[in-house]
Specification:
Length: 410
């Protein structure tokens, strides 16, 4: 690339690509709440680095080593003591799909801390066979009541396609429903306590860097329908152009702000109180709830047990590679470096080998489901590439900068 040539930068990303000195994540990773504001107009906040070139998430991981976890557990016990019921009614909600994290959350709250959780599930868009089996094992082997919310299938299909067309974000509608369901169930059932699992501060999201940051009801509520977008499309357009009734959209939308303001619902990350190590959580879920890893390596990475419920999950990580230059192996390796299960050199090698691998295992099935031609998806990928990240060399797109320093402009 010629010097001083300014390349277009999309999505409000930093123009200069830098990589964390500790893990393999780049400063292109969005960590804001933009996904939950439902709009394509919000500028993304990205991972920040300190003067030593270390990212937010790695600094959080280092800070975890200095936490007095015995005192944190005492806080958890006091919290549970405030809400524990012995009258046969639920005292907390644990959202999840039966993956390793939700399996761990519900089981340890019930068996070690004497809570009586109601588990709730916003199902994957397209269940994998093993994802569905893990969900069943969570309830049958672990022993939990569950509400699985089966949303309008026609609308889910439409919104998934629109999310890909307008945002190249196959997972947006799943994420929205997953995030918004628990407060609404808590309101309807009068359950005052919600436990999420791993603290999002693990990944550099400052919104989660608080044991009860979700008391900020605006994060989970809506005030004005005119400000809400689903799949990059306004509610008005969904109703008028796509002929979707408002009642059929409500399951994807947050609770009304006035309803949440009247309720006294606390939302906590269990990962604030208990030291959260994904590999240890995996072993716990296997032993106690019958969780099973994927029987093969996940495309785009080297792991077998992270985010394996949904056939669209693999495609979602491929689109993060397209938009931000960050694939699934980068996410997995960065996490394992922070937990001292890999050294950075190993992470760099894994990223070089697996990041950006195209997930063809379920691709045609997904395209059939959303009624999109595969060629159209690939066209969209090229449209969504940011020029400051990608260069076309010999008819093939290649990253300008990589963590292994073999990019086009490195």
């Amino acid at each position: 690339m010629e010097k001083n040539v300014k390349l277009e930068v999309k999505y409000g990303l930093p123009p200069k690509v830098t990589f964390c000195a500790s893990c393999v994540m780049s400063n292109q990773r969005p960590v804001s709440e933009v996904e939950f504001k439902h709009t394509i107009k919000t500028r993304k906040r990205t991972l920040s680095f300190d003067e030593h070139g270390v990212c937010d998430a790695c600094r959080h991981a280092a800070a975890k080593e200095r936490i007095d976890w015995a005192k944190r557990e005492e806080e958890l016990i006091r919290l549970c003591d405030r809400y524990r019921r012995n009258d046969g009614y639920y005292d907390c909600i644990v959202p999840g799909s039966g993956g390793k994290d939700s399996a761990f959350q519900a089981h340890i709250l019930k068996t070690k801390y004497g809570m009586h959780p109601l588990t709730i599930t916003w199902p994957p868009i397209l269940y994998t066979d093993y994802g569905y089996k893990n969900w069943q094992n969570w309830l049958d082997v672990g022993g939990f009541d569950n509400i699985s919310f089966r949303r309008n299938g026609r609308v889910m299909k439409l919104l998934t396609r629109l999310s890909i067309e307008n945002l190249l974000h196959p997972f947006q509608t799943f994420i929205l429903g997953q995030k918004n369901l628990a407060p609404k169930i808590a309101l309807n059932y009068g359950i005052p306590l919600i436990f999420y699992g791993e603290n999002e501060a693990e990944y550099g999201n400052p919104l989660a860097d608080n044991k009860s940051s979700l008391r900020d009801k605006s994060y989970y509520s809506m005030k004005n329908l005119d400000e809400i977008y689903l799949g990059g499309v306004s509610i008005k357009e969904l109703r008028e152009v796509h002929k979707v009734d408002l009642a059929d959209l409500m399951s994807f939308l947050p609770a009304r702000q006035e309803d949440l303001e009247k309720a006294d619902i606390e939302v906590h990350y269990l990962g604030y109180y208990l030291k959260w190590t994904p590999q240890e959580v995996y072993y716990y879920a296997v032993e106690n709830t019958g969780f099973e890893a994927r029987p093969f390596r996940t495309q785009g990475t080297y792991s077998k047990y992270n985010s394996i419920d949904d056939k669209i999950d693999d495609l979602h990580y491929y689109t993060t590679m397209i938009k931000f230059g960050i694939g699934r192996a980068t996410y997995d390796a960065s996490q394992e470096i922070r937990n001292h299960h890999l050294v950075r050199e190993e992470g760099v090698a894994l990223v070089k080998k697996f990041d950006g691998e195209f997930p063809d295992r379920y691709f045609n099935e997904i395209m059939d489901y959303i009624e999109m031609k595969p060629e159209r998806f690939h066209e969209l990928c090229d449209q969504f590439r940011s020029p400051h990240l990608w260069a076309k060399v010999g008819g093939t797109y290649k990253l300008r900068h990589t963590v292994s320093k073999d990019g086009v402009d490195d």
